[in-house]
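RECORD TYPE: protein structure
NAME: Alginate lyase domain-containing protein
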Amino acid sequence: MRADLNAGGPRNTIMNFRWGWCLLRRLVIVPTFDGTSWTSVRQTVPATLNRNVITNVRDAAISILAQRPKLNAIRNDYAMISSTNSGSGFLHPVGLVGPAELAALRYRMANRVDFNSPQPGASDVLLSGQGVPPKTYPGGWAPPINTPVDGYPGPLAMTKVEVKYGGNEANAANCPANYPAGTPAAPQGICGHVSFVEMDGQMSMKQAMAYWATSDERYANNALGIIEAWTNTNQQFGLQKENGPLEAGWGVACMAKALEMLRNLPRAQALLPRYVNYVNTVLMPVMETYATTITQGAITNGAQNVYGNWHTTIADAMISFGVLADNKDRYKAGLELARTAIKDYLKWGRGSMATVDGVQRIPGECTETLRDIYHSEFGLGSALQAAEVAFQQGDDLYMVGGHALAAAMELHARIILADKNKEEPPQGFKWYDNGKGLPPAPSGTEYRFDIAKQLWFQFNKTTLQAVPGGELRDGVKYLLGVKFLPTGWELGYNHYWGRLGMQLPQTRQLLQTFAPEWFEMSWGLGTLAAADTAYQLWRPGLRALLKMTSAECKAP
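PREDICTED:
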């Protein structure tokens, strides 16, 4: 068993945060489960970790590595690969994780025989695809599950991308000439989504991480070739009022992180300013318009529960791109969007939102939990990835909403595990069961879910309109679309358990069941990048709190 997933192991110790002097305690709510029963438990954590605390603890932990001969290589590699931009103040490279974690990854890969860690196994899965469930489309085609050093059928750069709702491409003429044909062929009707996100976006991340796991520059060149192709080719990206902002967010979140991880290479340095210009010119306006003008317009017009996975995706992209471009304004805009989105998305089960329309909500529910679980994982995964990049820069998004992401991880982990083990879901929920869990809809209608109202309603299949007064108010929360996706679980666990000492038994069991994380669309590879790193790269540095002055502790 992994040491960090062993509940009774030596890693499961009480953290010394020097309460009352350097950090203030906060009691945060996390649901705990016993069969189908649940209750809210309060755990003690730091209210927030400011930049001075984060930096001093991390630097102290890395310095302590020098005192341990076997681990001094991590410190030396960190010193060689890390840098801080004098203008922006950003630490580099910070893609999916920071330079300390990347240095630890290289050390663990080089010492896979002598050092028992999850990274070598996760690297094997990344390169070979062994055990990764393929995402198979009708007709039998699936994106590659491995990370080939050669033979990848891309890049699939497109001059014009016009993605409608559902991922459909508005004009088949936009599809790239080398779009996978053969037998089976990639679905032509969604070529923009597949090309930018499910092929080139995710492959750029996989190739960049493969470079760090193997030190083989062929992987780095593969990633850079993909990013360069889109930089040189793509001139228009949409559709603005349909799926364009989301698709742009997914792709930028991948490619910006990949380029950031490779920024020390000469080819990456030459590409970086051109990619920054491409994103600022073509992609960022699409995302920014949705995150500001369209979102605020909806709220002004009375829309409810507006913030969802689109917003956390765009926040993830903005934060990662801001770091890559050393653009503090773009980064801060991403931080603000993330704070607003996380707080609103995870408001359920707390305060005035504990009971809504007579239905008890559990802390950890998000606005999309009752829509379906996989879209909820989209939203949570992007929020967790954004939080990790921000944390590496000294900004604590993990604490937003009372550390609400920790509660969300526990609840959604319990639901996914219950589904896998064919158990009943937590009290108050019921399996949708392909619609059989719902009461029968009246003739000529079907039930659909309204995110704004958080209710199922009758939809007339002839008039294509909602039936007036047809809301389903039976007090039951139906669950559908339940599946595990590699969406930030390892990053969140490494922070909340590894850095803060929180108890997350459902998340621990989830990782015991499904890890290592693969990469899918815009998320994943947390096992390779971060698993069980906090005990070396954070916990030893907590002694630095003893040397900090009160002013340093309280600085923003």
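COMMENT: The longest strand covers residues 25-34.
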